[in-house]
Amino acid sequence: MNYVSTRGYDRKYTSAEAIITGIAPDGGLFVPDSIPAITKDELAEMKNMQFYEISARVLSKYLTDFTEEELIDYTRQAYSEEKWGENPVPLVQLNSYNDREYILELWHGPTCAFKDVALQLLPHLMTASIAKTGINRKICILTATSGDTGKAALEGFKDLPGTEIIVFYPTGGVSEAQKLQMITTTGSNTHVVAVNGCFDDAQTGVKNIFADKDFAKKLDDNGFMLSSANSINWGRLVPQIAYYVYSYVELARTEKIEDGEEINIVVPTGNFGNILAAWFAKQMGIPVRRLICASNRNKVLCDFFSTGTYDRKREFFKTTSPSMDILISSNLERLLFEVTGGDSSAVRTWMKSLSEVGSYSVDSKTLKTLQRNFVGGFADETGVAKTILDVYDRTDNVIDTHTAVGFNIYSRYHQRSNDECKTVFASTASPFKFAPAVMDSLRGSGFSSGRSIENVIEELSAESGLAIPEGIKDLDKKEILHKDVIEKEHMKDEVSTILIG
User: Fold this and answer.
1) Residue 80: inside a domain, yes or no?
2) CA distances from 86 to 58, 79, 306 (A)
3) Residue 99: what are its φ and ψ, rounded to 5°?
């Protein structure tokens, strides 16, 4: 299988090349030249597989430079019991009296966020891709984060030979726990830099660096090349497809659904990578009725699925679900390419308009295709807080603020649609990563005010009966190792200073 750019670059890439390169030379994103299928027989076979085996099977259909045996070796290491516990991505029925709602807990990895699923695996794929392509330069992983990707990438690539990793995060745009996780990261090759601005500023800066051919040559002359750990890198996105396949197989294996029965999938969405992975799973043959795209107050996606107009020219809100505080959802570009039958000219026009004017509108045919697959909705902070308390009261499960956005939108969708399909909720982070907002929801607004982050985390543990994850414990006692704060205009200079001096 080869990979092409969403914007029509005239060269095809192997999967190993796409993983190393990260983003196409024309600024487009890599997509497979076809979407492979999963047969009914394979789904039946997967009922006898563990998650790492299912993951390897799904990956083998996209990453054809790799043998399935290689991929099984990588997934076995990436999802080891030592890092994840007995089940890396447990699918939990929320209430024994309700057989409609299931939560896919994606946060049992080292940094307590769903990004771990891909970013514990990506370093294996990256180093293998380097060997397969014969690259002899040092790889710099360059990443912007809205909170979770940064720490997950740092943990994945920390002290990995032949790599440096630079993470840019927005000042004031991540939770205190997320920030402490990143700025206390050890490792000889890790660099964490705060950018004055929002996530979109950091992400745009990273994209501009990737698109700068003169800078790429400068790095090449000094023995470096750039790659990404954001979901703009196909190697970051493809492992996420696997856990949606797994969730369907698990429902069938435990006889919660009949073979071939449709399900809904609810995903809290910012950069659109996680829900796009669910869409790819559907295209592969997983019977999905609706993909529910849940937004917070930065509801650019909700508005897009309603009107067909994507408009980033709007007020930006800092919310209690900061990983979704995004106005430019990069992976939507991949979806537009796919639903238009690979019309790179249209995608190129829309992305140019987004960059230069701040908005674009798709044609009516494209909008109707999108609306057949996706339901959009948004929740404000009041709604999120009420949802956290509601889910706790009726199921005894404590969810984080991002997962709560998904539950909020689904609840309203279910009420108006009477859709009784079994539904999988992607739970994207541990509640401990957002303990102040969660405790304010459970105990009343203002509860966490004046309390230290560690004290609030301990209160949450006592309230919920959940053990504090190792990746969260004693954050305030760790040494702060990364203190740099820069303006967004200086990001390229910062990369140059770190790598070249």
Assistant:
1) no
2) 21, 10, 41
3) -95, 20
pTM to 2 decimals?
0.95
Instruction: Please write the tens of the pLDDT for every residue from 62-89.
Output: 999 999 999 999 999 999 999 999 999 9
Contact status, residue 226 vs residue 142, Cβ threshold 8 Å: yes
DSSP secondary structure letter of residue 341: T
Tell me which residue of 371, 420, 25 sits closest to 210, measured CA to CA. Answer: 25
E strand intervals along 366-412:
374-378
Please check whether residue 27 is in contact with residue 211, taking contact to mean a CB–CB distance below 8 angstroms.
yes
The answer to whether residue 172 is domain-embedded is yes
The two structure tokens encoding residue 215: 């800078």
Residue with tokens 């205190």: 176
Strand partners, 148: none
What pLDDT, on a 0 to 100 scale, did the predictor assign at position 172?
86
Are the C-beta atoms of residues 170 and 453 closer than 8 Å to each other?
no
How many whole angstroms separate alpha carbon 153 and alpha carbon 142? 10
Nearest one of 444, 360, 450, 394 to 96, comparing CA atoms: 394
d(C-alpha 75, C-alpha 3), whole Å: 22
pLDDT tens string 433-467:
999 999 999 999 999 999 999 999 999 999 999 99
CATH number, domain of 382, equals 3.40.50.1100
Q: Determine the Cα–Cα distance for residues 323 and 170; give it in Å rounded to an integer.
A: 11
* pLDDT tens for each residue of 397-424: 999 999 999 999 999 999 999 999 999 9
SS3 (DSSP) at 423:
strand
Residue 364, token pair as written in the block: 């009516």
Residue 86, token pair as written in the block: 């007995």
The DSSP element (H or E) to which 226 belongs, if any, is strand 224-227
**Residues paired with 320 in a beta bridge:** none
Could you list the active site residues? 115
pLDDT in tens, 92-130: 999 988 999 999 999 999 999 999 999 999 999 999 999
| 134 located within any domain | yes
Q: Number of C-alpha atoms within 13 angstroms, CB side, residue 393?
A: 9
Domain count, the chain: 1
**Mean pLDDT, the chain, as a whole number?**
96
CA-based nearest residue to 246, from 203, 281, 220: 281
Domain boundaries, position 373: 90-501
